[in-house]
């Protein structure tokens, strides 16, 4: 079992998985950094889900969804 500390950072979680398995080395960490910016622990709704330039566009949301699917499939393959 991999020890994982509680975090919402995709970059940190990626580092943990990469260290343990190494097979995810081809992943686009630029997108991980961008997705990390969408999370906020604020209680104020206007701060949720914003990138530095505002809300993600539909194109960006589609890119994020496709990337999430790719990460899920690769991670699922490692756990089988």
What does this structure look like?
The chain is 52% helix and 0% strand. It is mainly α and 80 residues long. The two termini are 14 Å apart. The mean pLDDT is 77.
Name the shape in a single word.
globular
Q: Strand pairing plus helix content: what structural class?
A: mainly alpha
Strand content: under 5%
Rounded to an integer in angstroms, the radius of gyration calculated over CA atoms is: 14 Å
| Low-confidence parts | none
Total count of strands: 0
Largest sheet: none
The span between the termini is 14 Å
Helix content: 40-55%
Q: Could you say how many structural domains there are in total?
A: 1
Q: In sequence order, what are the helices and strands, one letter per element? A: HHH
Helical region count?
Answer: 3
Q: What's the overall average pLDDT, rounded?
A: 77
